[in-house]
């Protein structure tokens, strides 16, 4: 039996565990049964080490734990400043996010005399403008990089659907100008809030938060995903395919570990699909559904472990709700 607190912890730890489980399989072909999915090191990643997905979620979680409101540019600007610090030493930064940060830093460099970092609201506005610029130049900005980090957002606004939706889209818009990315974050965050509150997963039930025409598009995408296995959904670096692959894993899975393994089997952007799946599945099954050894070995930027994430989630709970 899961408690509301266990499920809130699950939204963050489930995502981090999926991230670390998938890290060793990133950019590789699909892995189908009966080949087991192993908790192991791979590429630049140690066993149990989370990647950019969790690293970018942590400043969002920290901001909520400190009492910040992700619907404000001041809070978002503080998050962006921490992302920039992380990105300089990071082992991996997503292509689209790297482009946005590059454009932002050129802009901040021009403003160095004004010390833009003293005005976090201005940093947030510049970051959104850089995201729009990348969208205009490349013609696309629908990467999965804002959905992968959205796991903690709902925890700051449990019981307030409008606030969950607004905060989810606001954090997405910082780096991902494409409406699909914002829509995906809104749907997923509302589903996480619902799962923490009820122990049930209901993604279709969140479609009412989108404009009617967008809701219909997403209704079809969700239905399509339910008819496919994660590895049958191609191009999962795209936010729509990443959500579909994660949803397929959840729809077909029957435990948190099963969901995460199904997500990793998708191949390609395995850690991100599993991080996305883990945030919602973790909010249903709870952190207690994770193997103890995974939780014990989880670690990553900024030199933190699962216990640090747990402390922050509980702090958010104390600040904003009755977890
Ligand atoms: Mg990653």
Q: What are the SSEs and their pairings?
A:
Elements: H1 4-23, H2 52-65, H3 73-89, H4 95-110, H5 120-138, H6 161-173, H7 179-198, H8 212-226, H9 239-252, H10 256-264, H11 270-285, H12 292-297, E1 299-300, E2 304-305, H13 306-320
Antiparallel strand pairs: 1-2
Bound molecules: magnesium ion (MG).
| Each distinct ligand | magnesium ion
DSSP, total strands: 2
- H/I helix tally: 13
Assign a percent range to the helix content. 55-70%
Quick overview:
By secondary structure, the chain is mostly helical.
Structure description:
The chain has 323 residues and is an all-alpha fold. The chain has one domain: Orthogonal Bundle (ADP-ribosylglycohydrolase fold). The protein is built from 13 helices and two strands; from the N terminus they run ααααααααααααββα. It has a two-stranded antiparallel ribbon. It is globular and about 55 Å long. 56% of the residues are buried. The model has no long low-confidence stretch (mean pLDDT 95). Bound molecules: magnesium ion. The site of magnesium ion (MG) has 6 residues, from helix 2 and helix 11.
Descriptive key words:
1% strand, 60% helix, 323 residues, mainly alpha, ADP-ribosylglycohydrolase fold, two-stranded antiparallel ribbon, globular, binds magnesium ion
């Amino acid at each position: 039996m899961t408690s509301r607190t266990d499920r809130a912890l699950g939204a963050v730890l489930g995502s981090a565990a999926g991230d670390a489980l998938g890290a060793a399989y990133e950019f590789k072909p699909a892995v189908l049964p009966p080949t087991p999915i192993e908790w192991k090191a791979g590429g630049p990643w140690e066993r149990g080490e989370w990647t950019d997905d969790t690293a970018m979620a942590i400043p969002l979680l920290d901001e909520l734990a400190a009492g910040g409101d992700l619907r404000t540019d001041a809070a978002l600007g503080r998050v962006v400043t921490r992302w920039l610090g992380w990105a300089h030493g990071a082992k991996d930064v997503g292509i689209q996010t790297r482009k946005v940060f590059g454009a932002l830093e050129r802009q901040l460099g021009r403003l160095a005399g004004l010390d833009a970092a003293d005005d976090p609201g201005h940093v947030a506005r510049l970051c959104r403008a850089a995201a729009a610029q990348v969208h205009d130049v490349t013609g696309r900005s629908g990467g999965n990089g804002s959905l992968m980090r959205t796991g903690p957002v709902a925890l700051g606004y449990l019981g307030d659907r409008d606030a969950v939706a607004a905060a989810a889209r606001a954090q997405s818009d910082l780096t991902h100008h494409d409406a699909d990315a914002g829509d995906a974050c809104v749907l997923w965050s509302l589903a996480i809030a619902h799962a923490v509150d009820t122990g049930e997963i209901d993604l279709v039930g969140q479609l009412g938060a989108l404009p009617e025409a967008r809701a219909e598009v997403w209704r079809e995408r969700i239905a399509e995903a339910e008819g496919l296995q994660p590895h049958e959904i191609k191009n999962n670096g795209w936010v729509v395919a990443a959500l579909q692959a994660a949803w397929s894993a959840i729809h077909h899975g029957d435990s948190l570990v099963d969901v995460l393994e199904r997500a990793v089997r998708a191949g390609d952007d395995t850690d991100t699909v599993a991080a996305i799946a883990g945030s919602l599945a973790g909010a249903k099954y709870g952190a207690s559904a994770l193997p103890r050894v995974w939780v014990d070995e989880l670690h990553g930027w900024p030199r933190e472990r699962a216990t640090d994430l747990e402390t922050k989630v509980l702090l958010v709970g104390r600040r904003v709700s009755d977890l």
